[in-house]
Structure formats: structure tokens, C-alpha cells
Design goal:
Structural class: alpha/beta
Number of strands: 8
Number of domains: 1
Order of helices and strands: HEEEHHEHEHEHHEHEH
């Protein structure tokens, strides 16, 4: 009987720590679902760093929790972790051609106020990271809003969209590349680096050397170097896979933890 009671208590504590939220449809599109993980010692009278984790193309808000034990990371690093849903192929942008897909507007107009209203967030320590499509989204949102985010990360991110004109439904939100090339350039992280050139920002990017996105990430690193932008770049053996991301994301948590309080 004691074992059963202990098991029920453990399940209850986990349910309190991990929240799955379902919001109504927003004018910017349906992006309402997200997972939240709080530290096991969460105290609403204290402020906690926030890390937002963006999933990849064809994934959803549960993808990161399938890759890593996010509750363990929330406990270990004392972060609030939020995993929003970027839909199948939103690419985390305000689409210039699809009015039903306006993720960036949803993020700042709806998601952020909701998180700040429900959780005790330290506004000086907000971080964002993501994998693949989510890596693209995290870096782009960081570059567009450097005063909001303390830092950002990307693992296996598609940081230049131009080499992939027919891949992953990008054209659904940006239009055909031949006709709408300016859209593709405007929304590719590698062409937006000047936005933080003079801000002394530091962030982290990694990619496996066997990953099809490796060349894009290497060129992104080189662009940062030329522009004098701080970047922690990690390359190691690995491909575009859950196995790689389960290992690489640890570097992001360690990097962000070091920045808390700076």
C-alpha cells in the first residue's frame, strides 16, 4: 500500500511540474499548444530563467520531450522550459504570403504574455533554442528581437534557406523561390546577422559533420567571424537525428546556465 501511495504522489508531483496547455485559435493561426516544465523546487515568489525550445519540421510541441528528459533538465539547471507548437511547417515566421501562418506575431502577442502571466519568469534571462526548422526559428527570433532574448541556440539549424528551394514546404510560407527570392533572403538567419553586429551578443550553434545542414552551419560560423560576432560553434560527428540532438542540447543548457546572472 505504501508503494502505491508513493507512486501516486510521484505522479501528482510530475503532473504539477509538467503542464500541457491548449489555447483557442489565434488570429495569427493555430499555434496554441505548448508544454511547460518547472523546476521541482519551483517557488512563485522567486524568478526563474526561461528557455523556449522549438521543434523541427513535421514535429510538434512534444518533440523535444521525446528526445530528452526535460523535467530532469528543469530540475538540474533551475529553468522554466516551454516547448511551443510551430505547426508542421510554419518556419516560425510571419509568412508574407499566408495570413493564417503568423508565428512571430503569435509568439510575442499571445504566447509570451501567457507565459509571463502564469509563471514567475526572470525577464533578464530569457533564452531560445531549437532543432532543424526550430534552429532556424530560434536564431531568427533572436536576431529580430535581441533586446528580448539574452541568448539563443541552434542545433542542426537550417540557417540559410536558399540552398533548399523545394524542401520541407518552405515555399508554402515564403512563396516560390524564383519569384519571391527576397522573402527567402529576408527570413534566412545568415543574412540577418548585421542586426546584432554592434550589440555584443553571444550565442551557440552546433551541427554534426555528417548532417546535410553542416555546410550551411559552417558558412554561418564564417559569417559571424567576418562580422566580429561572438558565437560558440560546435562541430562533432553526427547527423540529423534524435540521437545527435539528445547529446547536443546539453551544450545549450550548459551555455545558457553560465550566462544567467551575467
Amino acid at each position: 500500500m505504501k508503494k502505491i501511495i508513493l507512486l501516486l504522489v510521484s505522479v501528482l508531483i510530475y503532473a504539477i511540474a509538467v503542464s500541457s496547455c491548449f489555447s483557442p485559435k489565434h488570429p495569427q493561426g493555430y499555434f496554441g499548444n505548448y508544454l511547460t516544465f518547472k523546476p521541482d523546487n519551483y517557488d512563485s515568489d522567486k524568478k526563474y530563467p526561461l528557455i523556449l525550445m522549438l521543434h523541427g519540421h513535421s514535429g510538434d510541441y512534444t518533440q523535444w520531450s521525446d528526445i530528452a528528459d526535460l523535467q530532469q533538465y528543469a530540475d538540474k539547471y533551475n529553468f522554466i522550459i516551454v516547448c511551443p507548437d510551430g505547426n508542421y511547417d510554419s518556419w516560425y515566421i510571419d509568412s508574407p504570403i499566408l495570413k493564417e501562418s503568423q508565428f512571430e506575431s503569435y509568439f510575442f502577442n499571445d504566447l509570451v504574455p501567457e507565459i509571463f502571466g502564469n509563471y514567475s519568469v526572470d525577464s533578464n534571462n530569457i533564452f531560445i533554442t531549437g532543432l532543424s526548422m526550430g534552429g532556424h526559428g530560434a536564431i531568427n527570433l533572436f536576431l529580430n528581437h535581441p533586446q528580448f532574448f539574452k541568448s539563443a541556440g541552434s542545433t542542426s539549424g537550417i540557417l540559410d534557406l536558399l540552398p533548399f528551394p523545394t524542401n520541407w514546404e518552405i515555399k508554402n510560407v515564403l512563396g516560390n523561390q524564383e519569384r519571391y527570392r527576397d522573402n527567402w533572403i529576408k527570413h534566412s538567419a545568415i543574412y540577418n546577422l548585421d542586426k546584432i553586429k554592434d550589440l555584443n551578443k553571444n550565442f551557440i550553434v552546433d551541427c554534426g559533420t555528417e548532417d546535410f545542414a553542416y555546410d550551411v552551419n559552417r558558412r554561418f560560423r564564417d559569417s559571424c567571424e567576418v562580422k566580429g560576432i561572438k558565437l560558440k560553434f560546435i562541430q562533432t560527428a553526427g547527423d540529423h537525428s534524435y540521437e545527435y540532438w539528445a547529446k547536443s542540447i546539453i551544450n545549450h543548457f550548459e551555455f545558457f546556465k553560465e550566462m544567467v546572472g551575467e
